[in-house]
Amino acid sequence: MHNREFVERATSGFDDYRAAVDAWTLDRAAEVTGVPADAIQEFAHAYALASTVQLCWTLGITEHHCGTDNVFSLINLALLTGHIGRWGSGLVPLRGQNNVQGGADMGALPNKLPGFKDVSDDVERARFEAVYGTQLPAEPGWHISQMFDAMERNDLRSVYIIGENPAQSEADATRVRGLLAGLDHLVVQDMFLTKTAGFADVVLPAVAGWAETDGTFTSSERRVQLVRRALDPPGEAKDDLVIIADLAARLGHDWGHPTAEELWDELRGLSAIHAGMSYERLASHGGLQWPCRDEDDPGRPFLHGRLWDDPVTGSRAPFTPVEWIPPVDELSEEYPIRLTTGRRLDSYNTGVQSGRYSSPKRWGESIDLSPEDAATLGLADGDLARVTSRRGSVEAPVRTDPDLRPGLAFMTFHFPDQVDTNVLTLDAWDPKSGTSEYKATAVRIEGLGESS
After folding, report:
1. Partners of 102 in the beta sheet?
2. What is the pLDDT of residue 361?
3. What's the whole-model pTM score?
4. How far is CA 264 from CA 123, 238, 357, in A?
5. CATH number of 76's domain
């Protein structure tokens, strides 16, 4: 059912990919995944034969120690069927927050400069050094999981955290808090006094990025949009740009106080994919999608259309064979249930922003179980249960969910002051992305009686 013409003309590595998946019969796939073989077959036929189709995914794919390989598996399916690089078909990662794409675009990755240029590229790095007026490291830095490992080795002793609450959001939270508490110096820049800020030596009050500052956000579809200040910041809170410029001045580097637009224009001069996105054009178009290489460029609504050129423009798209690897946290007689964590509609991350108001859709934290597991454990809705992993225990009320299959439990991390879910999760991380395995914790569940 593969698109033979597309595969032969536009891709590379197909033979190695075919060899890698040859052993995966429907029966084996059903045994490993728990998804019935006929359902897998039905989906495979529907996906391959559809005229247009998109593969959309969220953190349930990526928050595993093999998350990158999971994404490669989806890319392989799109290449196999030709569902990429054309209207209505493609790969759509739905980001976990509203500006994850923008952060990556701006170089908030340890191995990338803004515009996705490699820090190891001497020519590209020299361009940035000429504008920045300083020498940049030629080696990649640490991602967040490596930073905590470095704290444990005492190689990282001073940390500056902006708009993040790792004391409650990171996996194996007990370990994380111990490492934060043991730092020589911790600076936290945030609009709320978070749990992480409680460990800080210095707290710098920041502003609300959606109402009290100018700048840009970039959506999952690569659309850069302007954000305009609507309100002046309260009290002593300052724009992130002001705080960083003030800090630079105290460290002996007078950057002045450039506006958000001036900094954006500097970025456009360095990142070719943003070069055509002036503030004026962003405002008049209601946003533009990169790549947008000059001020006559309308941007690109989808990527990889070149793969349909004959012959293909540029390099072919490679298949990436991957091997199935089970979760690190193995199920056992002592820990027989698989816990996955995630989000609910009305709440956001650790509740720093969403936990300060009530919602009719919110019921607080719970341990969600299939009706079958609840019956086996002698538990009913509202009962209090202890959930224990190899790292710690929490107590939470039980909620049955008929959409959960037996053996799978669910919790969020939205209410850590009520139930500290990330005490349970595992900090084993993907060697390619650095993302921890939040989605596959082995737990046992014990009833504690009716919840008060």
Report:
1. none
2. 83
3. 0.91
4. 22, 19, 34
5. 3.40.228.10
